[in-house]
Amino acid sequence: MILVFVIVFCAIVALGFGAASAWSDISRLTIPNTYAISIAVAFIPAYLLITFMAPETEVFFAWKSHLIAAAIAFVITYILFHLKLMGGGDSKLLSAYALWVGLSGLMPLVFIMAVVGGILGLLTLVFKKWKPFKKTVKGSWVAKAQAGEESVPYGVAIFSGALVTFWQLGFLKPETIMALAETGTGY
Description:
Blueprint: H1 2-28, H2 33-53, H3 63-82, H4 88-130, H5 141-146, H6 154-169, H7 174-181
């Protein structure tokens, strides 16, 4: 039972910091480094516990898959950061979630992120052109968009992709949690 608690706790911590990242990105267009670091750190006990105590659940993949996915995400987003197409916090956040989902979950993560990012991009253009809100919080995404900036809070898109991908991979599905509880390991 401790195994189930730790795995679910780690996944909730990872998603909680993702939600905090999304909120921070909407309200200030910044994502603190500690959020991405916390997501990556939460992966370690979850991965180790499942790999060594319940490998038959097949929730995670080979460790190389997770490291390669994180490296691919980091290299691509690092290039986008230098081209001023993505923020540094977004790069770290996506890399941390890529670590969680591995190569098999990377494409769904990026796909959902792209769809939500596209919607946010369109909203940014709408806010820029029509300025629908009279009062906005200074420094927020909406305020900056209405002032003519074209910044998009990708943290929201990345978190959305992570949330969907976590569910698809089974990190929070009841069936997976029950399978972990029934491993018979006595944990």
